[in-house]
Write a structure and sequence with these properties.
Elements (H helix, E strand, L loop, with lengths): L1 E2 L6 E2 L28 H12 L23 H8 L22 H22 L6 H22 L8 H23 L10 H25 L6 H30 L2 H14 L4 H16 L12 H18 L10 H33 L37 E3 L3 E3 L58 H8 L8
Helix pairs in contact: 1-11, 3-4, 4-7, 4-8, 5-6, 5-7, 6-7, 6-9, 6-10, 7-8, 7-9, 9-10, 9-11, 10-11
Length: 485
């Protein structure tokens, strides 16, 4: 339950407009509202977003990772997420919703894995069934990595990569990157003990192994053409690498030590998985797409400063992760700190990727305000005060040159203004509650025009009815700024 910021009326979470006053709900607005908050973490995200090719707008914050996790969701909602990305379910760019992503399905996937792990663990512990051991090893290793790539699948705003394709990348990409890393280790002997230099070599070898595989899948998947796709493909490869590597560690603990050690290793690998291979490979995928830009794929991306400016981050994080730093394992402060740093970078890249999707949606819908099917055709339009008499007028026909602002309004300067009783009149004297606007200059670029006779043009959404005050009536009869002489 939420409340209207204008009149305080209660609203449902999915409502775009207040049923009492008609004011748009800005909870789903993803334009420039992130820049209004000046917290230290927001400033850090804005700076990193600019460095990673974004516009500096913070649209996705740490709290959005869990905003919908504890809310109730239906099976139909989960089905709609899993079926997207096919030829029949991929929406055109003009129909994409530019609302802030609020992932939740990944938590349900993790819960399923956790319940299955507990059942198999009970079979192994209570009944001593050796047949439960492979399941305990696999579920303990794959629960968190698979949940993480489901998270990136949820926030993939273009919805142009299917879940089946993502699973293929997880399985084949994870195995291929692991095999390639083992091949590189043949030429890079590490010795028996892991020191600082060996940790740096490990970071280089394993990140290069994942880099080659991520690059291959980005070129292979023709639909992958934006940063959000690159984050998903990179995360899928990293999740596969993490799952199969963790399975090896858990199995080794089960065979060489004891049952208690196996559970300890499984729990430790699960806790640290969010800041490990999944995050590092996702950063690598973004680096490749950022270096590519709008150009076709070629090996020239490896010569780009944009790529190397980001690729060193996962290499360095991985190297420090494996270094034998004194007291680094006390309360796991070092890996937890590196996990936090990885996700700060990822949040900046996610924000930059969302901004890229919004820009493409705007271009697809047309900078001249050309009406397209989708979310923009179902909501009101808030004009810029340069054309309207007062900021916040609710009903107006935008002139040529306005462009859609993230499904909320039309503007020249990317700002939306709330409606208030003092500024509800149009500059031309028409009442905003009029349902028909006969005459005037309408064109196919105007969002209130459906085609045909312009004199029959009407808005897509009926304005809420209310009684006019005496002041409004006089303003209607004598429009401001009009010379009576």
């Amino acid at each position: 339950m939420k409340h209207c910021r204008n009149c305080g009326a209660s609203m449902n979470e999915e409502d775009l407009f207040c049923s009492r006053c008609g004011m748009p709900c800005y909870e789903k607005f993803t334009g420039r509202e992130g820049a209004r908050k000046s917290g230290g973490f927001s400033r850090l995200l804005r700076g990193l977003s600019c460095l990673t090719g974004g516009d500096g707008t913070v649209r996705f914050r740490f709290g959005d990772l869990f905003a919908e996790v504890f809310q109730k969701h239906s099976k139909e909602e989960a089905d709609r997420i899993f079926i997207c990305g096919t030829a029949a379910t991929t929406p055109p760019p003009a129909s994409l919703e530019t609302v802030r992503p609020r992932p939740w399905l990944y938590s349900r996937v993790f819960a399923v894995f956790a319940v299955a792990f507990l059942f198999l663990n009970a079979g192994l512990l209570v009944f001593g069934s050796a047949f439960s051991l492979p399941g305990v090893v696999f579920l303990g290793a794959a629960a968190v990595p698979i949940s993480l790539f489901v998270f990136f699948f949820e926030i993939n705003l273009p919805k142009n990569i299917s879940f089946f394709t993502t699973v293929k990348i997880f399985l084949i990409g994870g195995c291929a990157s692991l095999l390639l890393s083992l091949f590189l280790y043949v030429f890079v002997p590490l010795g028996e003990e892991i020191g600082y230099f060996q940790a740096i070599l490990i970071g280089i070898v394993e990140e290069v192994g994942k880099l080659v595989v991520v690059y291959f899948f980005l070129r292979w998947e023709k639909a992958a053409d934006c940063a959000m796709n690159a984050l998903l493909i990179g995360a899928a490869v990293g999740a596969g690498f993490a799952a199969f590597e963790s399975a090896g560690y858990i199995l080794w603990a089960a065979l060489e030590e004891n049952y208690s050690s196996m559970l300890q290793v499984a729990f430790l690998r699960a806790v640290l998985a969010p800041g490990g291979h999944v995050a590092w490979a996702a950063i690598t995928g973004y680096a490749l797409m950022y270096a590519k830009g709008e150009d076709p794929w070629s090996t020239s991306v490896f010569k780009s400063r944009k790529f190397w400016g980001l690729f060193w981050i996962p290499v360095l994080l991985h190297a420090v992760w494996d270094m034998p730093i004194p007291f680094g394992s006390v309360l796991l402060w070092l890996p937890l700190l590196l996990t936090a740093l990885s996700w700060v970078v990822l949040l900046a890249q996610i924000n930059a990727g969302i901004g890229q999707v919004i820009d493409r949606v705007r271009r697809a819908r047309g900078e001249e305000g050309e009406t397209q099917k989708g979310l923009l055709s179902e909501i009101a339009w808030i004009p810029d005060p340069a054309w309207c008499r007062a900021p916040g007028s609710f009903w107006s026909v935008p002139p040529s040159g306005f462009f859609p602002l993230d499904g909320v309004g039309w503007t020249r300067n990317s700002q939306a203004y709330p409606r208030s009783p003092e500024n509800s009149e149009r500059r031309d004297g028409r009442d905003p509650d009029d349902r028909f606007f006969p005459g005037g200059s309408f064109s196919s670029a105007d969002p209130f025009f459906r085609g045909g006779d312009s004199s029959k043009a009407r808005p897509f959404r009926e304005a809420p009815s209310r009684e006019r005050s005496s002041c409004e009536k006089s303003s209607r009869e004598e429009p401001p700024g009009e010379n009576k002489t």
